[in-house]
Amino acid sequence: MRHTDSPDPKLLANIRVVLARTSHPGNIGAAARALKTMGLAQLCLVDPGIFPNSQADAMASGAGDVLANARVCATLAEALDDTTLALGVSARRRDIVAEVLTPPEAAARLLGEAGTAPVALVFGNETNGLTNEELSLCQALVTIPANPQYSSLNLAAAVQVLAYEIRQMWLGGASWPQPDIDAASGAELENFYVHLETTLAELDFLNPGSPGKLMLKLRRLFSRTRLAREEVNILRGILTAAQTGRERRQE
Question: How far apart are the C-alpha atoms of 236 and 242, rounded to whole Å?
Answer without folding.
Answer: 10
